[in-house]
């Protein structure tokens, strides 16, 4: 980031201008209702600044993975209603992000007014970074503000493509994220421990390999752990396995050994026969899981070991749940990590939590304000840790992505 020349919102002239702002409103929803507004709240400072400057603000965002066509369950309309309450002013909604309907809503905006345009991912062109689509989006503004830290690691039309057509800069939330993560990553107090969980091994293997160059300890839990156990010939029963990633997992373990990075896996597990919220849960005696069982959470011994490691660290980065925490019965491991993060913070450690699930778990435990930094971008913060140049930033700096 520091090497790139990027303007900040306060360096841009937005007075009375039409501003196109990319925000991250990829919020959790249940039965058509937004269940957590953290991401929306994160953008308020920038929005209030733009409103005060008399800008006419068009917000673009994505929600879920609607695969390039409209799907009502991924509509951003409920988010517009919540944003309106938070801003205490009406927020117009356009049922498409490009085309006549969007143009009409944007053209009707008066100074200080805000509109939210429908899910970008209703168009396949968004994720393809299609230049025609990017140009159609860019038409909504005279200035572009990048405020979607959670999407800044993607080279999409709304995060990279639009920058070819509009002058732009980063909003207050992105500034805060970058300052904090940059400072921490480059000057981490040691020991520096990363706790990585979640389900997508394939998404996170590259990150793990890079993380090994930065951290002193790596704790791996959640659905990811089983691929790592399996590659060490430990039986994992019917637990999540990415069989084609076993060799790569093995290479990561070897790399950790070479670098003398302590790499810890679950020593015990909570297991069930059937994946349902009220399934009878058992705790394994060791790392191994019986052939007919599924691992759904880290076990009590692992909780103790992981918590101790977290509390001994001076810098901790956490991304991804330790179990299927959406089901209360299997949330103990994740909540325990949240608790250990809060305790480490109280002892003076710098603690960073990234990723929607980890943030949700932290909130569920009532500990959101007890860690040093809640990052709104799970993937983006991981890629910064990896030392990658984020495409959304590179595009703002005028580079081709
Ligand atoms: P990710 O997007 O990779 O961070 O994965 C988050 C998801 O991982 C959550 O929805 C969890 O339910 C899931 N997860 C965590 N532990 C397990 C597990 N043991 N088996 C299956 N899924 C898991």
Task: Provide the fold topology.
Blueprint: E1 18-23, E2 29-30, E3 33-34, H1 38-41, H2 44-52, E4 56-60, H3 77-87, E5 91-94, H4 100-107, E6 114-117, H5 124-127, H6 131-138, E7 143-147, E8 168-170, H7 172-186, E9 192-196, H8 201-211, E10 217-220, H9 225-230, H10 246-259, E11 262-264, E12 269-272, E13 282-283, E14 294-298, H11 300-312, E15 315-319, H12 332-346, E16 350-354, H13 356-364, E17 373-375, H14 378-386, H15 391-396
Parallel strand pairs: 1-4, 1-7, 4-6, 5-6, 7-8, 9-10, 9-15, 10-11, 15-16, 16-17
Antiparallel strand pairs: 2-3, 12-13, 12-14
Helix pairs in contact: 8-14, 11-12, 12-13
Bound molecules: adenosine monophosphate (AMP).
Task: Explain the overall architecture.
By secondary structure, this protein is α/β, with parallel strands linked by helices. 35% of the residues lie in helices and 17% in strands. The chain has 15 helices and 17 strands. Strand 15 (315-319), helix 12 (332-346) and strand 16 (350-354) form a beta-alpha-beta unit. The site of adenosine monophosphate has 15 residues, from strand 14.
What is shown here, in short?
The chain has 401 residues and is α/β, with parallel strands linked by helices. It has 15 helices and 17 strands. It folds into two domains: 9-174 and 390-396, 3-Layer(aba) Sandwich (Rossmann fold), CATH 3.40.50.1260; 190-348, 3-Layer(aba) Sandwich (Rossmann fold), CATH 3.40.50.
């Amino acid at each position: 980031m520091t090497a790139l020349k990027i303007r900040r919102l306060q360096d841009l002239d937005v007075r009375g201008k039409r501003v196109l702002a990319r925000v991250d409103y990829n919020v959790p929803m249940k039965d058509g209702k937004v269940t957590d507004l953290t991401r929306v709240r994160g953008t308020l400072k920038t929005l209030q600044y733009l409103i005060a400057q008399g800008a006419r603000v068009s917000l673009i965002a994505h929600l879920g993975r609607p695969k390039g066509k409209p799907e009502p369950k991924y509509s951003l309309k409920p988010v517009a209603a919540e944003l309106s309450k938070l801003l205490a002013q009406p927020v117009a909604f356009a049922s498409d992000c490009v085309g006549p309907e969007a143009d009409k809503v944007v053209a009707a905006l008066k100074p200080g007014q805000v509109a939210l345009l429908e899910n970008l991912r209703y168009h396949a062109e968004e994720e393809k970074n299609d230049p025609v689509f990017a140009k159609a989006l860019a038409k909504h503004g005279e200035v572009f503000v990048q405020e979607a830290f959670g999407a800044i690691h993607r080279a999409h039309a709304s995060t990279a493509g639009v920058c070819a057509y509009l002058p732009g800069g980063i909003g207050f939330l992105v500034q805060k994220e970058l300052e904090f993560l940059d400072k921490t990553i480059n000057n981490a107090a040691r020991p520096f421990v990363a706790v990585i969980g979640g389900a997508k091994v394939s998404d996170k293997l590259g990150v793990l390999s890079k993380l090994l160059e930065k951290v002193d300890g790596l704790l791996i839990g959640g659905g990811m752990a089983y691929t790592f156990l399996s590659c060490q010939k430990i039986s994992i029963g019917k637990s999540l396995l990415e069989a084609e990633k076993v060799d790569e997992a093995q290479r990561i373990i070897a790399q950790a050994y070479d670098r003398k990075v302590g790499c810890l896996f679950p020593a015990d597990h909570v297991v069930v026969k059937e994946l349902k919220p009220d399934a009878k849960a058992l705790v394994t005696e060791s790392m191994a899981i019986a052939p007919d069982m599924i691992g759904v959470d880290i076990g009590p011994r692992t909780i103790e070991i992981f918590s101790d490691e977290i509390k001994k660290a001076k810098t901790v980065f956490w991304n991804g749940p330790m179990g299927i925490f959406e089901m209360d019965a299997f949330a103990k491991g994740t909540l325990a990590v949240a608790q250990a993060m809060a305790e480490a913070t109280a002892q003076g450690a710098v603690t960073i939590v990234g990723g929607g699930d980890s943030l949700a778990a932290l909130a569920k435990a009532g500990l959101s304000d007890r860690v040093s930094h809640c990052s709104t971008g799970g993937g983006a913060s991981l890629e910064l840790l990896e030392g990658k140049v984020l495409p959304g930033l590179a595009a703002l700096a005028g580079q081709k992505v």
